[in-house]
Design a protein that fits this description.
Blueprint (H helix, E strand, L loop, with lengths): L4 E5 L3 E8 L11 E9 L1 H11 L3 E8 L5 H10 L3 E7 L5 E7 L5 E6 L11 H9 L2 E4 L5 H13 L3 E4 L9 H4 L4 E5 H7 L1 H5 L3 E5 L5 E5 L4 E4 L12 H12 L4 H15 L12 H7 L3
Parallel strand pairs: 1-4, 1-8, 2-6, 4-5, 8-9, 9-10, 10-11
Antiparallel strand pairs: 2-3, 6-7, 11-12, 12-13
Helix pairs in contact: 1-8, 8-9, 9-10
Protein name: Ribokinase
GO cellular component, one term: cytosol
Catalytic activity: D-ribose + ATP = D-ribose 5-phosphate + ADP + H(+)
Length: 288
């Protein structure tokens, strides 16, 4: 069987990661113990996670003309993600300032930069969306672009999977296009029962407790996660999303446990895109 084809329309950022004993309070200055600059962005993270999980992945997005652009592109190339539709625009690339404490909890501030310029998809980019099995989107690029990509995907039979992060109100036209909605508990509460109930397939992540699935036909299931030693939770959600997109054609009974395992393994390593496990690692760790 050929590898699942996943098109990711989304963000790419340089993550500026600081490690601290605890997260600072409002107005407080504390000392950090380590610093690293690593490629990230929800779109790129999920694209890399999907590629490592066994997908044939195409990424559509933008980097700037700054010193970060080359490293951001190279991270995708190294993961064997197709970057022919990764644009370079004048100005800064997106960045994310991330603080991670000793328990692995994090706080994040994102500055979109070049990601905010992804406002129109070219005919070639739309063709890549139509050719995919799954379109995977987040909300770190202009919302109108997500709607346009989803509409084109839906018109060509491509599964539309949306991770509405950072959470914001979703227009009705987008909700009606979503096949699979991937949320955490906070995002689910912010979107509300009306939106959640309007989508055919909803996967809700529960941190170390795994994830729940609910289908519009009344089907539900819970998948647990393997017990791991948590180092950094930053990349867990994106690893989950990428793995879910790759395994979705096997149905939620297969895809949700696969994604839960990928998310758990990602917490055992520092960083975002750099923490995503391979398909072999995931399959070896899925709880029996």
């Amino acid at each position: 069987m050929s590898a699942p084809r996943v098109a990711v329309v989304g963000s790419v950022n340089m993550d500026l990661l600081t490690a601290t004993e605890r997260l600072p309070g409002p107005g407080e200055t504390i000392l950090g113990s380590a610093f690293a600059a690593t490629p990230g962005g929800k779109g790129a993270n999920q694209a890399i996670a999907a590629a490592r999980a066994g997908g044939a992945v195409t990424f559509i997005g933008a980097v700037g003309s700054d010193v970060f652009a080359l490293d951001l592109r190279q991270a995708l190339v190294d993961a064997e993600v197709d970057t022919r539709y990764l644009r370079e625009v004048d100005g800064p690339s997106g960045i994310a300032a991330i603080t991670v404490d000793a328990a692995g909890e994090n706080s994040i501030v994102v500055v979109p930069g070049a990601n905010s310029t992804v406002v129109d998809l070219t005919p070639a980019e739309l063709a890549a969306v139509a050719d995919a099995d799954v379109l995977l989107c987040q909300l770190e690029i202009p919302l109108g672009t997500v709607v346009a990509a989803a509409a084109h995907a839906a018109a060509h039979g491509t599964v539309v999977m949306v991770n509405p992060s950072p959470a914001q109100p979703l227009p009705t036209e987008l909700v009606e296009l979503i096949d699979v909605l991937l949320v955490n508990q906070t995002e689910a509460a912010q979107l509300g029962a009306e939106v959640i109930g309007a989508v055919s397939h909803v996967v809700t992540t529960l941190g170390s407790s795994g994830a729940d699935y609910a289908g519009s036909d009344g089907t539900t299931l819970h998948a647990g996660s393997p017990a791991v030693e948590v180092v950094d939770t930053t990349g867990a959600g994106d690893a989950f999303a990428g793995a879910l997109s790759v395994s979705w054609r096997g149905g939620p009974g297969t895809a949700v446990p696969f994604a839960c395992t990928a998310g758990a393994l990602a917490t055992t390593r520092r960083g975002a895109s750099t923490s995503s496990p391979t398909r072999t690692e995931i399959e070896a760790a899925i709880p029996g």
